[in-house]
Write a structure and sequence with these properties.
Elements: H1 3-34, E1 52-57, E2 63-69, E3 77-82, H2 93-96, E4 104-109, H3 123-139, E5 147-152, H4 154-163, E6 170-174, H5 180-187, H6 193-196, H7 203-206, E7 214-219, H8 227-236, E8 241-246, H9 257-269
Parallel strand pairs: 3-4, 3-5, 5-6, 6-7, 7-8
Antiparallel strand pairs: 1-2, 2-4
Helix pairs in contact: 3-4
């Protein structure tokens, strides 16, 4: 074998080795790439709404922190809020401050591994956390028919899962994705994402199973979850359904007067 062929063979072998090592690394560390509990984009927002810090214990005995605001559970609907894949409850203060002006109760749940909670986040673990929060609310006297499930980003995958074939008052999905497989292919197009991925969050396969009224919110400038995914989720969903699609919002939607009014209007249609 001449030197040129040996060199080409070496290059091919090196590329294959590097590809294998990167693929192996993606498989081993995939949950570190997906879940970012210590990421902080909290800019010092002050709570202007009264909350009670409560403990929700999961079926596998993990205590979860949640912030609970109760006005009147018999008179008003209760929002159960599932946050995204990064940051703490404090990162959502700028959102829940607006809830005080609505005729609602709300509870903001921190996932396992987030906001000081024990445990490590996984798809099945987050589903268990969410169902435990629903059970906790029901034990407080809130009926399933008075719960509004709200999912933000990754939380939309959890919201879609637990809302299937249930009689929740409504479901709100902010910046939803079709599946983590589709998102993975966007970020890692040359790797066998479907084979590697442990936490798939296949909302596209589940959205038809939602019977509750639905509000989908998504910004067309979203650089993390492409807008077409939110649009597809909306198109596939059953009626009644509503959308709030904006021209300029990125992934973290601007909680301005227009968005707040849209949420408030949606909630009013449920009464």
């Amino acid at each position: 074998m001449n030197k040129k062929k040996m060199y080409n063979l070496f290059l091919v072998s090196l590329v294959v080795l590097v590809y294998f090592l990167v693929t192996l690394g993606l498989y081993i560390f995939q949950r570190d790439l997906l879940y970012h509990p210590v990421e902080n984009n909290y800019y010092g927002d002050k709570l202007t709404v009264n909350i009670e810090k409560v403990k929700i214990t999961t079926d596998d005995n993990i205590d979860l922190l949640a912030w609970y605001h109760k006005k009147d559970i018999k008179k008003y609907k209760t929002i159960l809020y599932f946050h995204g894949n990064a940051g703490s409850l404090e990162n959502r203060i700028h959102k829940i401050n607006h809830f005080k002006d609505m005729n609602i109760n709300f509870i903001l749940l921190a996932w396992r591994g987030f906001s000081g909670n024990k445990g490590k986040p996984t798809e099945q673990g987050l589903y268990q956390d969410a169902r435990s929060a629903v059970k906790w609310l029901i034990n407080q006297g809130v009926t399933e028919e008075n719960i509004i499930i709200y999912g933000e980003s990754l939380g939309t995958g959890v919201a879609t899962e637990i809302a299937q074939n249930k009689n929740f008052a409504g479901v709100i999905l902010e910046s939803p994705f079709t599946s983590m497989i589709d998102l993975g292919k966007k970020y890692y197009p040359i790797f066998p994402v479907k084979l590697l991925l442990k936490d798939k969050y296949e909302s596209e396969k589940k959205i038809k199973n939602l019977k509750s009224p639905l509000l989908v919110m998504h910004g067309k400038k979203d650089k993390i979850v492409p807008f077409y995914m939110g649009e597809k989720i909306f198109d596939m969903a059953n009626n009644p359904k509503f959308n709030y699609f904006t021209e300029m919002d990125d992934h973290m939607m601007n909680y301005d007067e227009n968005l707040i009014n849209e949420i408030d209007l949606f909630i009013r249609t449920l009464n």
